Each structure stands twice: as structure tokens, then as C-alpha cells.
Amino acid sequence: MELNLEGKTALVMASSQGLGKAIATVFVKEGMNVVLASRNEEKLNEVQTELENLQGGKVRYIRTDITQPDQIKQAVQHTVDSFGQLDILINNAGGPPAGTFEQITDEQWQQSFELNLLSYVRMIREALPHLKKNGGKIINIASSSIKEPIPGLLLSNTFRTGIVGMTKTLASELAKDRILINTVAPGRIATDRVAFLDEVNAEKQGITKGEMEEKMKNTIPLGRYGEPEEFAKVVTFLVSDANSYMTGSSFLVDGGMVKSI
Description:
The structure is a single chain. The chain has eight helices and seven strands, in the order E-H-E-H-E-H-E-H-E-H-E-H-H-H-E. By secondary structure, it is α/β, with parallel strands linked by helices. It starts with 8 loop residues before the first strand and ends in an 8-residue tail after the last strand.
């Protein structure tokens, strides 16, 4: 199967660690040029050095707070200035805080809206003129909560499903420009975010983190957490030439954990 990704350019948000870093890594291995973006410049510099040692595609980075519209504009412009084009946009953002309805403040609602939904809107808007030139691919990273709400993660449950509605609508609007857009949702992937949630839930239940991990693994038919690279490979397929007819869809990478149809 020919992916035909060599020489293409991707902007990968929240790519200094976790799923974003894993996606950027696989992209570089496929010969793509990648711009890394996150708020942590020190980590960005470290990841750039790490990926450049792979001797694949070229790597640049830009410090970006995706809740700031001007910094979103700068990230897209930096990508085009660096490589002359933008072919692929990976929307990604850290998860909002945990909490029940009565615990969450108006300020947390607003912050999560700007981080987990409005930032995706703004990023797509800014990238569109460049993606329209040759057709392009957009991937919106969400959460397994788009199919099955996660207890205690009300903010994620709310705004991640908003991503799905936007993706489905944009699939129709952007088809004339040969732009494909899809949502990819991780289940229990072995990232710092999942480790943090395991710690929080373990404390609530009065058990150790290790016991919490085993409890969660028992809910996954494959019996383990996924690796970030496994998630990244699905994203890589969707942005490649191998995917020419899937748009507006939501894909779970969860080892069979979610039981909904």
C-alpha cells in the first residue's frame, strides 16, 4: 500500500508529548515535514532534536497557546514559511479538568470551551486557505467519550462530542475543495494524561494506581492499554493517499473498550 506522504507538510498541535508527539514521530518516519506546536518550548526543542535524529522528514517547532487566536495564526504562518505549504492539520489539545456538574465553575466551562472546541474551530479556519490549494486532510483528536460518556469527565463529554458534530458538518462543506476531515478518538492509551486519570480515580476509590490500571485493563477486550504509536498509525493512514473516500467519520482506537455500536 502506497501512503505517498513523503514531502508533505503537517502541523501537529500539542505535539511536545503524548499522542501529538507519537503522531509527529510516525509522520517524520514517513518522510513528512512536520511543525510541532505546544506551550512548552523546552519540550518542543527536545522533541525536535529527537525527531531530527530519525533522518526522515524535516522538523520545526513554534511555541503556541491554542487558546490565543494570534498564536494560532502564527503557527499556521510559521508552517507555510518553513515549508512553503500546509497539507495536513492535526487538531489536538490536552484534556479538561475532571469534575461533576456541581463542582465545575463557569470559568472552567469557558476555559474548556476555548481549549477543547473553539481552538479547533480557529485552527481549521486559519489553515483552510492553504489546505484548499491542493486538497488536504484534517484530523480532529477527541476522546472515547464521543461514543460513551466517561463518569467524572463532564467537560470532556460535552466538548468532545461537539468536535464530532463540527467534523460531520465540515465533511460536507469542504468536500468540494477535496479536503477530507475525520475524528479519531483514543481509549486507554498509555500517555501521561491517562496515568493522571488513573491516579485520580485510584485515590477516589481508595486503591493503588497499579490496582486501578488492572481494573481498567479488565474492561478492555485486548487486556492492555494501547501504545501511542498504535494510535498514531491510524491517524497516519487517514491522512495518507490510502484514504481517499472516508470523511466525516469517527474512529475509535480503544482495544474494543467502548461497548456502544
